[in-house]
């Protein structure tokens, strides 16, 4: 499988093994019906244990299946019109908004952003060579590692957001390497505002959502507010409000939409139907990867179950989503869930939907999240037990090692210090796994919570063992 968009959920998911449930059976030689999709999705929702799913499948200019499964945090049943956060799927909407202005002659893809966006400047002179195409293809050189991401999230407007980039730098020459960075699409959203003379959310509503009939869609919580989502805590779903820094009105992750509306979006992105916001040539431009990576203006070329698709995943902290279109077969898919855990099951559900359209019998995903979080829980319990034993036996330990050289004592204490050091560096370690994406302690209390809690318990056990042993050691040495 080709590159997927890395979030902590996908990073951990890639290193865990899902337990496959019984397969859903398709009939070879026959296009799957709405009932086939419904049967598969009911099994998928049950086996994954997700709190809720909202799914749509399209082919050509028709919606084959659109439905919801499970309940939201208020207890209301989810259906195809339930608002869902779709996180980074927003990027494809932002790219479409830019392309409408490109075709109107108000934005030029291969002209420097600095020439089209007053107020955009950076400490790095190479920023003057970033083009709009570089932004949309994630090849601008912008990176979480060289920009104050937190300062940008604290701003109340895209104009102020752009101003926070003034002290930032690039990681490479624009157009030469790929690096996923939300700043690219937030800059693109501000460019839409300047070129159109409208707010970004207003432009999306009037020129993207409106023409496609997506009446249930909006940006941030301004027009459409979803119920709180869930985080998975050792296998149990806990309702929690979304991270406030990600409820912005930018172009990287703020769209809230429904399965019904996503059906209209997928049809338009496959070039079918009568409602279109860009030309077919514009779609080809949006769906063509850059020379340096398979990312293509809010989409990525991937192969799923042998079928070439354009795909984009999205993950906030209480919602997850994935979309895919097949220009060859005309199928489109969107899978959205109101939960986020250490393993993201939406992509696995998408794989099953693709398999159904090919006449295959997909394995129903599930078990990986629960299994992995169970292992973490057991590790936490063992760590707590070992820490308690170390404290209770600290006098015996001190009597045994109290007369030995200091370096031998340090070596004996070192293993207990390791989890303390891991805890201190945990956000930075997770950032490395996520290719340099910024991670904060507040974010570590959301869907990574089981991992964070386990490391905290291990660190506490290690610290207690060290403290009690040093205390007893001092007593032993002072008594001669």
Can I get a quick summary?
This protein has helices at about 10-15, 35-50, 90-105, 115, 130-135, 150-155, 160-165, 185-195, 200-210, 260-270, 280-285, 345-355, 370-390, 395-400, 405-425, 425-435, 450-480; strands at about 50-60, 60-70, 85, 220, 230-235, 235-240, 255, 300-305, 305-315, 320-325, 330-335, 340.
Structural account:
- Residues 1-20 form the signal peptide.
- It is a single chain.
- This protein has 480 residues and is α+β, with helices and mostly antiparallel strands.
- The protein has 2 domains: 8-98 and 192-366, DD-peptidase/beta-lactamase superfamily (Beta-lactamase), CATH 3.40.710; 369-478, no CATH class.
- The chain has helices spanning 8-14, 34-48, 90-103, 113-116, 132-136, 149-153, 158-163, 183-196, 200-212, 259-269, 280-286, 346-357, 368-392, 394-401, 406-424, 426-433, 449-478, and strands at 52-59, 62-70, 84-85, 218-219, 229-233, 236-240, 255-257, 300-304, 307-315, 320-325, 331-337, 339-340.
- The strands form 3 sheets. Strands 2-1-11-10-9-8 form a 6-stranded antiparallel β-sheet, with helices on both faces. A 3-stranded antiparallel β-sheet has the order 3-7-4.
- The longest helix has 30 residues, at 449-478.
């Amino acid at each position: 499988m080709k590159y997927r968009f890395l979030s902590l959920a996908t990073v951990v998911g890639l290193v865990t093994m899902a337990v496959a449930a019984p397969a859903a059976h398709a009939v070879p030689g026959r296009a799957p019906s709405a009932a086939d999709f419904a049967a598969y999705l009911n099994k998928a929702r049950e086996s994954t244990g997700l709190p809720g799913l909202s799914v749509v499948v399209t082919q050509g200019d028709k919606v084959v299946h659109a439905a919801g499964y499970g309940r939201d945090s208020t207890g209301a049943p989810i259906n195809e019109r339930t608002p869902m956060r779709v996180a980074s799927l927003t990027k494809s909407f932002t790219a479409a908004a830019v392309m409408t202005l490109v075709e109107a002659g108000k934005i030029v893809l291969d002209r420097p952003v600095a020439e089209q966006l007053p107020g955009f400047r950076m400490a790095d002179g190479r920023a003057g060579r970033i083009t709009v195409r570089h932004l949309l293809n994630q090849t601008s050189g912008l990176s979480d590692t060289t920009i104050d991401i937190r300062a940008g999230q604290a701003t109340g407007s895209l104009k102020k957001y752009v101003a926070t980039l003034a002290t930032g730098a690039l990681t490479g020459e624009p157009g030469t390497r790929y690096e996923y960075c939300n700043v690219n699409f937030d800059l693109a959203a501000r460019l839409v505002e300047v070129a159109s003379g409208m707010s970004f959310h207003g432009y999306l509503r009037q020129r993207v959502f409106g023409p496609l009939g997506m009446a249930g869609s909006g940006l941030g919580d301004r027009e459409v507010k979803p119920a709180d989502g869930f985080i998975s805590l050792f296998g149990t779903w806990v309702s929690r409000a979304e991270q406030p820094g990600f409820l912005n009105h930018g172009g990287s992750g703020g769209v809230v939409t429904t399965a019904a509306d996503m059906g209209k979006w997928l049809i338009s992105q496959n070039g079918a139907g009568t409602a279109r916001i860009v030309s077919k040539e514009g779609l080809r431009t949006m769906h063509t990867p850059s020379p340096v990576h398979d990312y293509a203006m809010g989409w990525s070329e991937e192969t799923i179950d042998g079928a070439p698709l354009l795909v984009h995943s999205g993950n906030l902290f209480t919602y997850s989503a994935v979309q895919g279109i097949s220009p060859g077969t005309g199928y489109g898919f969107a899978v959205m869930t109101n939960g986020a855990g250490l393993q993201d099951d939406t992509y696995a559900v998408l794989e099953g939907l693709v398999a159904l359209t090919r006449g295959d019998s997909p394995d129903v995903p599930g078990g990986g999240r629960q299994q992995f979080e169970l292992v973490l829980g057991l590790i936490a319990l063992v760590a707590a037990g070992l820490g308690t034993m170390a404290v209770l036996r600290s006098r015996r330990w001190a009597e045994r090692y109290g007369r030995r050289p200091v370096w031998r004592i340090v070596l004996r204490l070192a293993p207990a210090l390791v989890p303390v050091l891991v805890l201190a560096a945990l956000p930075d370690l997770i950032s490395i796994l996520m290719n340099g994406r910024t991670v904060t302690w507040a974010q570590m209390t959301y869907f990574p919570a089981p991992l964070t809690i386990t490391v905290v318990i291990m660190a506490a056990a290690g610290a207690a063992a060290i403290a009690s042993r040093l205390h007893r050691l001092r007593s032993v040495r002072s008594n001669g």
